[in-house]
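Following the same procedure, backbone shapes were mapped to integers, as reproduced here:
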Amino acid sequence: MKWLIRLKELLEKDTINQEEYDEFVAIGNTLIKESDLEKYREFGEGIYLLLDPDVKTGDDFWQLQIMLIDQEY
């Protein structure tokens, strides 16, 4: 469970940069077991609170897409 140790290390930081956030997402993409995914989600709440303001997340992408669609209509 090296991924669990890495997530704990990330939570000890003051802020999470883009590279670290991308690493967090990549870890999540490797998990299969529901128990692992549940732990990952719990860590995710803390990770999001530590994100540097310049970090781009998937949420940012979808918000931009919605804004562009709204502008078309």
Residues 61-66 have pLDDT under 50 and may be disordered. Residues 17 and 43 are 16 Å apart (CA to CA). The first helix runs from residue 2 to 11.
